[in-house]
Amino acid sequence: MSESRSPAFYYLAGFFALFVLFLYGPTLTIFILSFQGPEGGLTFPMRGFSFHWFGVLWQGLGVVDVWAAIARSAKLGIVVTVLTVVVSVMAGLAFRRRFLGSTLLFYVAIASLILPSIVVSLGIALEFRIFDDFLKAYGLSPASGSTMGLFTSALGAHMTWTLPFGMLIMLVVFNRFNPAYEEAARDLGATPWQTFRHVVLPIISPYLVGVALFGFTLSWDEIARTSQAVGGPNTLPLELQGLTSTVTTPAIYALGTMTTTVSFLVIGATLGTGLYLRRRRLRGASDAGKGTI
Fold first, then answer.
1. CATH architecture of the region 64-246
2. pLDDT tens by residue, 15-31
3. What is the residue-wise DSSP string for 13-45?
């Protein structure tokens, strides 16, 4: 016999539905309004349905080079992703054994998660300005006039946001990792590098995909930590923030729809890659088990 649900269930379900609507309602609204007709505005009701504003976006939005900003954000996101994966794996391997100062180093590494983003951004900008003054005092100032830039200060700012997430994931992974696999490889004469490449890496590869997802998506959408530390040309989120005060057509919604679509495509590709690697690993383990029978 099925039990009847209490009224509290429906209250909580309704509250959860409102919460989901609050989270994704603005994104859905922007997505719908980006398909306004040529005479459409920034609010409902919609005036026709077309891809007109995507065409306007393709032609550019005034003085702002949107496509150059997209390219800058994509390049920065890729570099951040690679560094986050590499450093997170190295950190996960290092923290498998306790060493002097490991606890302090761990808390220092993840402290940026609880610090206000704007404070981190201002701190990084101040550090680079002090460094610029030091170089200027010795006549070593760079040609651009500042060492701040996309792959210096902005890269560091993004790493303070993405790296703690990657480290936490890898620490959990290696905490559950069975060292018997490595011991078996060493017994068969494998070197440390061969053990890592042929044993450890294939096992943790699905989790590396998750770390890469964090790295790219967090970098792609980051604005607060980039605002004071980017130096020269802006990333896409900063350009998008600036456009909100100058562009008064649904073209700004078209840009928002496009950037959100990129994020969902990356998430979908990442999940698909993770599932593929997981199935491949399970298939390999099954084949190996059959071979021993």
1. Orthogonal Bundle (1.10)
2. 999 999 998 888 888 88
3. HHHHHHHHHHHHHHHHHHHHHTTB-TT--SSSS
